User: Which sequence fits this backbone?
């Protein structure tokens, strides 16, 4: 069946509408397209495996999308993105992974937060930097450790324990005060 409309065409369905194609289907829009959906969208490509692939055109480059499951929130991007890819939302964006989550940037990685930022980790956290780390606070900077806080630089070490004991270790230790230096203690022991 061939249908040609030289001007406008409108279709109104007051209830449900279904369409079935036994083989292939092609929709091509030379101008703009707008789709408004008040409810949910379910898309399934191929079988329930990674073999079902769809091609999505984004900004002149092609992304391969493998849709497995129930909604567009559960999509998986396969292949490379030759152009830019942008995600924008007027409200919230939530990314949830039931297992592992990885982020990789081939070059630089920057993050900008207009207001507050918080991070909660139930286990351990490790940061490894090949060169330098710089941290700046324009007002207050607080570091809190529940049991022990250790600072090590080569042969120099400062250990602060929760019981209030502080150990400073180094080959040469200098204390300079431009105004006053006050040492107070129950006993001050000097060799």
Assistant:
């Amino acid at each position: 069946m061939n249908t040609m409309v030289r001007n406008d065409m409108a279709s109104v369905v007051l209830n449900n509408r279904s369409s079935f194609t036994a083989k292939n289907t092609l929709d091509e829009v030379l101008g703009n397209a707008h789709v408004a959906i008040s409810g949910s969208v379910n898309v399934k490509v191929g079988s329930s495996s990674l073999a079902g692939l769809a091609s999505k055109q984004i900004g002149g480059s092609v992304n391969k999308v493998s849709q497995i499951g129930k909604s567009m929130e559960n999509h998986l991007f396969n292949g490379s993105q030759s152009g830019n890819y942008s995600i924008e939302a007027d409200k919230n964006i939530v990314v949830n992974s039931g297992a592992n989550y990885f982020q990789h940037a081939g070059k630089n990685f920057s993050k900008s937060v207009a207001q507050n930022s918080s991070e909660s980790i139930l286990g351990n956290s490790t940061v490894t930097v090949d060169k330098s780390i710089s941290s700046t606070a324009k007002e207050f900077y607080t570091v809190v450790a529940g049991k022990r806080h250790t600072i090590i630089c080569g042969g120099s070490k400062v250990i602060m324990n929760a019981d209030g004991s502080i150990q400073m270790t180094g080959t040469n230790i200098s204390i300079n005060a431009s105004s006053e230096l006050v040492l107070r203690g129950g006993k001050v022991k000097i060799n």
